């Protein structure tokens, strides 16, 4: 028996991020390229939103506009009602690569965030201890980046992004370079951390399974110029067991719909 996709939610919790009629165009010697076209999106308090789409569709550009790292050509982005017009200090950002300082140990890399923001040292140290325990890095505090696996390096990067307890955590394909098993473990870890912290998360990913497993809603984008083709609710509850969730008919149906929209029904993640 085929499961039916759920209807979109009628209501959304208090918006933390609001994107209105966003357009981004880049100019170069080869001409003008429209990266994003007419993006409208609201992200609620404590929500986990995944953004899936083909390479070059503007997913990362959208994340950078929300962070204030890239300017909108037209339209607007608001974070808790405040217009985003430049780099924001109240967000956390996890990049595709961990980008750790090779001469700093785990603790030193995490506390770099505190130094850059001028945080209270004692408070930052306590927060770092909490995050190290939460992410399973206890015992590796003095380890240098080259002594860590790729997954552990990304855990350090995640701790650094969460140190100042940001309202919004932006993640740009953070597990794309990891092997399949490590990526699966990091998905489970990230989902647990999100449940425990209640942070609003926006994740950009190429993986359909990752997008659906982690999120409350999945935004599917078109090829460039990036437009939102559809937003899918993921009514699987917060407490998700990885193996059980992957076999859930609702998970299967939503994943299939995302693949259909991306034109990759028979392709892998």
User: What fraction, in percent, of the residue positions are helical?
Assistant: 25-40%
In this structure, how is the largest beta sheet organized? 6 strands, mixed
Amino-to-carboxy terminus distance: 25 Å
Number of strands: 10
Number of helices: 8
Order of helices and strands: EEEHEEEHHHEHEHEEHH
Oligomer state equals single chain
Report the mean per-residue pLDDT as an integer: 88
Tell me the CATH superfamily of the largest domain. P-loop containing nucleotide triphosphate hydrolases
Q: What is the radius of gyration computed over CA atoms, rounded to a whole number of angstroms?
A: 19 Å
* Relative strand content: 15-25%
Structural class: alpha/beta
The CATH class designation of the largest domain is: Alpha Beta
Shape: globular
Low-pLDDT sequence parts: 1-11, 265-269
| Strand neighbour order, sheet with most strands | 6-7-8-3-9-10
Compute the number of structural domains: 2
Q: CATH fold name of the largest domain, please?
A: Rossmann fold
Can you name the CATH architecture of the largest domain?
3-Layer(aba) Sandwich
């Amino acid at each position: 028996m085929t499961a039916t996709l759920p209807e979109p939610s009628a209501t959304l919790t208090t918006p933390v991020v609001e994107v209105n009629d966003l357009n981004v165009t880049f100019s170069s010697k080869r001409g003008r390229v429209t990266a994003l076209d007419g993006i409208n999106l609201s992200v609620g308090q404590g929500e986990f939103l995944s953004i899936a789409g083909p390479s070059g569709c503007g997913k990362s550009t959208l994340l950078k506009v929300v962070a204030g790292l890239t300017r909108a050509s037209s339209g607007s982005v608001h974070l808790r009602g405040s217009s985003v017009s430049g780099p924001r200090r109240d967000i956390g950002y996890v990049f595709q690569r961990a980008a750790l300082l090779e001469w700093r140990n785990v603790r030193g890399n995490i506390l770099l965030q505190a130094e850059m923001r001028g945080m209270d040292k004692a408070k930052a140290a306590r927060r770092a201890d909490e995050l190290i325990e939460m992410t399973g890095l206890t015992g590796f505090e003095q380890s240098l980046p080259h002594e860590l696996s790729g997954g552990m390096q990304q855990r350090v990067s995640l701790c650094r992004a969460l140190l100042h307890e940001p309202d919004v955590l932006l993640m740009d394909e953070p597990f794309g370079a990891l092997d399949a098993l490590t990526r699966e473990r990091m998905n489970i870890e990230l989902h647990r951390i999100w449940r425990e912290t209640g942070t609003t998360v926006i994740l950009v990913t190429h993986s359909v399974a990752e997008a659906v497993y982690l999120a409350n809603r999945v935004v599917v984008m078109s090829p460039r110029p990036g437009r939102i083709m559809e937003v899918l609710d993921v009514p699987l509850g917060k407490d998700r067991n990885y193996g059980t969730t992957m076999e859930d008919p609702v998970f299967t149906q939503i994943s299939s719909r995302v693949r259909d929209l991306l034109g990759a029904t028979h392709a892998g993640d």
